[in-house]
């Protein structure tokens, strides 16, 4: 598990390989990830949007951004957690993701970024 804390917001990431298939005559590798966002600060916060940088084994970079996470903009009071699952497709058996969440401190109305640490995506038998 990968973890990082930014301004009292702890991000934990777990990944897993889901399988491979052909799509439009190209091999695709499906990966899933579970992220837990834990508010360790003394203020209530709201996740507004996300930004992802996804790289595959050939160093091809894909940028993904948008509102919320999986259709939600969670509000976290001090001590609360929000967990969600999502996934991505790569054209190779290995890659990595990193990014950030744009959040707002609901007590001060200040916007801030929470770093999502870089994490690897890999088919388990590729590394053996």
From TrEMBL:
Pfam families: DUF525. Coiled coil: none annotated. This is Co2+/Mg2+ efflux protein ApaG. The gene is apaG. It comes from Christiangramia sediminis. InterPro entries: ApaG-like, ApaG_domain, ApaG_sf. Residues 3-128 form the ApaG domain.
